[in-house]
Each structure stands twice: as C-alpha cells, then as structure tokens.
Amino acid sequence: MTGIITKAIGGLYTVDASDGIYECNARGVFRKKKISPMCGDRVNFKAAGEGFVIEEILPRSSELIRPPLANLDLLVFVSSTVEPRPNTLLLDKFIAIAEFKGIRPVVVFTKVDKQSGAELAEIYRSAGIDVFECDNVTGEGSAEVKAMLQGKLSAFTGNTGVGKSSLLNNMFPELELATGEISKKLGRGRHTTRHVQLYKLEGGGYIADTPGFSSFDTNRYDIIFKEKLAGCFVEFADYTDKCRFPDCSHTKEKGCAVIEAVKAGEIPQSRFDSYVQMYEEAKQLKEWEYKND
Ligand SMILES: Nc1nc2c(ncn2[C@@H]2O[C@H](COP(=O)(O)OP(=O)(O)OP(=O)(O)O)[C@@H](O)[C@H]2O)c(=O)[nH]1
Ligand SMILES: [Zn+2]
Known about the structure:
By secondary structure, the protein is of the alpha/beta class. It is built from ten helices and 13 strands. It folds into three domains: 2-57, CATH 2.40.50.140; 63-214, 3-Layer(aba) Sandwich (Rossmann fold), CATH 3.40.50.300; 226-292, Ribonucleotide Reductase Protein R1, domain 1 (Orthogonal Bundle), CATH 1.10.40. The radius of gyration is 21 Å and the shape is globular. The chain binds guanosine-5'-triphosphate and zinc ion (ZN). Residues 70-214 form the EngC GTPase domain.
C-alpha cells in the first residue's frame, strides 16, 4: 500500500492512503541507514502483526530539516502591506531558500484594504514569482490562492500578525483557526512541543501546519553558499553570464551586468540589496567555518 505521512510523532506515523488512515511503525532498517520517515513522505507500507509497518520511503522532491518536511511543493510567504510593515530582506531570504531547496516560492500580500500592495507585487512578479494580493476583511483574493493549492503540498509562513490565519480561514473555514489566537488554539504555548502536521484539503492536496515557520529563523536555518546565491535570485539569470569577470560576485565589481541592470531599473534595487546582504552573511559563515575546522 502507498500513502503520505501526515503526522510523525515518536516513531509512530499516520499515513493517509487512498482507502483510509493508517497508523504505522517504521522498520529498523531506516535507523541503520540514518534516514527517518518524515511528514510529507510518500511511503510504501504493509500489514505486519497487529499493525502496519513502513517498508520504503519514496524519493523526495524536496526536503526541509527545520521544520522536518518532505516533498513540499509550495512555500507561501505571507506579508502584510502595513502593520507589520513588509520586510523585503526577510522575504527575499525565504524566497532564496525555497529556490535553493527546489520548492516553488509564492508571495501573498495582505491588508491591501489598508495599503496597496501593487508596487511590492510588481517587484516579485517581474522576477517570475507568483504573487497574490488579499484583503482578508472581505476575503478578496483568497479564491485565487486557494485554487493554486489544489493537489499540492503547501506551507504558509510569515511574521506574526500578517494575516495568515485570516487568509487560511477565508480559504478553509472548516479548519476553524482562531484569528489572533491561533497560537493558543493550536497549543503553541511555550510549554507545548508541537509537531508538523498535514491537513488534507477537500479539493485534493495538503497544508502543513508547521510550528517552525511562524518564527522561522533564517540564520539558524539554511545559509546558501555565496557561490550558489545568485542562482537563487531568478531574475539575475539573464545577466550573470554577461559580467566582465567570470568569477564576478555581483556585489561591487566593475563591468558587472547585474549591477548595470539594477542601475537601468531592470532589477529592483531592494532585491539587489537583499542579495548583497545575504552574500556578506554567507561570506562570513564560510570564513567562520574555515577557522573552526
Ligand atoms: N484590515 C485588514 N486586517 C487584517 C487583514 N488580515 C488580517 N488582518 C487583521 O490582522 C490581525 C492579525 O491577523 P491574523 O490572521 O491573526 O495574523 P497571523 O499571521 O495568523 O498571526 P499569528 O497567528 O500571530 O501568526 C487580526 O486582527 C486580523 O483581523 C487584512 O487583509 N486587512
Ligand atoms: Zn556580476
């Protein structure tokens, strides 16, 4: 039998298969191989003794370690246009990490009833990223986001107060998330350990409830090596092979086609600024690692 793991707690796995939900154990062989099944994994399992046991983990299309989640298709970054103000550096870090991991990034700007998200949206649309603008008070825009989630495994992230639960409520009233108190409702208190869990959507697909995402700390997360960073800013691709120096870092060199494109208004300044900041951070990490080994 084949299914997808929707919950993984203490060596016990909940597997959603076409004919029902199964509680499974994992075979010892996974421990020896040092891979363990995680939420989002597609697995083969079979009846064994009184219960069921996972036999095989199918190849993963993507893998996140913190929070542990396999086969994520979409990472949806929710940012409000005001209260709290959007943080383009954080947004660009998330997007780059998603690109690096082979997960499609999607951006949702909320609170467009208070302030237009058009200018911000254009920055990301011009980079070829899917952008949605939502007014969660009227629910406008949520149907488009919902349509995109169909048949996909998605996770939502964004700072506290940006309107994630409002948006999720507009799309899936059956989830009954308490706006403004989602933390309490889902037991996100300091003393509760929470686990990743997948919710099945009526139209097909899953949404991951991920404790690690709302307070997503990118520094502790994955730092992208500086050589790989430009490749995670998709709109740089048209320029990076036109620089004067083949080893151009695209941060300050003369004859850098990326910098020329920024000056010409072809690449948004804020995206470039984020790139330079992340490049500096990546550089420090490498030197630090080097000194310590
Ligand atoms: N005007 C306006 N207010 C919104 C919108 N979206 C959310 N809000 C309000 O912003 C506040 C925070 O919204 P939530 O949906 O709880 O935000 P959240 O991202 O889930 O926050 P956490 O649970 O802390 O992670 C609430 O008071 C919402 O009513 C919007 O599009 N427009
Ligand atoms: Zn360059």
